[in-house]
Design a protein that fits this description.
- The protein is 79% helix and 0% strand.
- The chain has 301 residues and is an all-alpha fold.
- The protein has a single domain, classed as Na+/H+ antiporter like fold.
Length: 301
Amino acid sequence: MPLFLLMAVGFAVRFFGLIDKRAADGINDAVFRVFLPVMLFKNLYETSIGDAFSWKLVVFAYVGVAVIVGLSMLIIPRLVSDDSQKGVLVQAIFRSNYVIFGLPLTEAILGKGQAGSTALLIACIVPLFNTLSVCLLEYYRGGGVKFRVFVKNVLTNPLVIASAVGISFLLLGIKLPDMLMDTVSTVSSVSSPLALIGLGAAIEFKKVPGNAREIAIGTLGRLVAVPLLGLPAAVLCGFRGAPLVALLALFATPTAVSTFTLARGLDGDSELAAELVVSTCTFSVFSVFAAVYALICFGLV
């Protein structure tokens, strides 16, 4: 609900004429190129590699995401004909709001200091999410892409670069001066609210009636199909407690806010992407509660 209300603030600011479309576009460009990359870097930089690390957890998460992407790429083109919407829908279904939701959700369920598995999975899953998103949007961009252009766009994407730098600093043990880290922390703390406000300011709802079918497909795929596939599989593979909560945050949370900024930067249907973020965020109030309640009732967390 707090995330949804931040988007409402952005929509209200635009609706009452305090900013125009050009200003909203500028905000979202800054979010894509500066604020989200800084937030991703900070999350990776501050991750602590210790007892919480589990290769089994990482491998399961990677395989799970790959299966979801593969199934989505088989199903979505049969339901949607517009290439700019295909990539947006596949991205919306596989890419959860793990960076923003993961740690708060884990701490809400398990308590403070129990989010080690989730934090380390963030370090592993963020680069995968960013690379897959860029690859998919480039693949569906106009029905095809030149390999050289494809590689260039993947390697120069700000989110991919931030993930690579963050992991490098983490593995090499490079430490930033406190003064610089304070600045990084401040910018990072602004990123999520600004991304949500910028998203709300960009929403116009002009295409909602025409996109109703696509919104329903993406919302049901993200909040119903993915959790029903991922969580039972995780339980059958023996995950319990903190690792299972980390996978809950991966599979059951709404579509990531960054899917909108990425779609907008790579010529996807950004209006549909924004509507999917709003829709999944709204209905996740019920679906995430149901998933958490079910796991607790069965004594799995």
